# Entry
Amino acid sequence: MRFITAFVEQSKAFINIVVEKAKVKPAWGIAFVLSVIYCIRFVRVSYGAYDPGLLFGFCVCGSPETPKETIGCSSSPANSHILAFGIDLVMTVFVVIFWCKDRSEKKENTIYIANGFIILAHGILHWYLQQQSNPFGLPIINCYSDLDDKTESFGYIIFGAFSFILGLIVLGFGVGFNKKTIGGSVVFAAFVVFLTKNTDGDLVLPGLFVVVHPLCCFTGLFSDVKNFQNPFIGQLFAVCTLVGISELSVCTSFFKAIGGNLWYDVTLHAAVLASLPYFSGPEVRAGHVYRRVR
# Structure
């Protein structure tokens, strides 16, 4: 009984802290609420509550024919995966441009490299998902594939490792690299794998990004690192989360017709670009940062 009472009290105290942080950082507060809704929608999809019409976890559009399970993207050379790849290449170039334009005495090169890696790796993933062949002996997805048990098991190992790295990047740059950050990243990776384990691999990739949303929003709310003090990042992240919710909710009826998952990449990586050190310097963002909450 004491344990339950203590847990309830600690939960109330934590909620009060979150509310106070959200008052100071309203964009991140809204993004956090949306991220929780996003997770709930994803859990419902992963447990078969409804079928949102996704292909391998993505809302995929294409031309001249619409991609589908039976033919994948075989008749859709112009599809949202290859378009997202192109957008991500352009945004990676922008990371390099902003690095070159950064006139800080001590450039934060690690952040530029990490953000560039995240965008480029995401783009390469989209390129790979719509390939109908490859010279590396990797599984052919072609926008949709039923993975065999061996491939799925190996894929989860790679997926778990990538989840850990992503969690480490988000938490590390937000609150600092330490034992708690490493432990939190391990817990994050384990939770993502557990959440997607019953989907036969179909929702592995979107599962990673769904769960990283509340992680990013939590970091944005509580971090005093200057890169998170730009309110525009929180606003973009709120829009990105809303796009993700739309992908899980109205893919077939609406979202696929306007580009599908392409818009998730556009909004997500716009937020990543906005978090670059170039935009957090006083000469760039003077007067447009949050006051700190102690």
About this structure: Residues 172 and 181 are 6 Å apart (CA to CA). The chain has ten helices and two strands. The chain has one domain: 25-285.
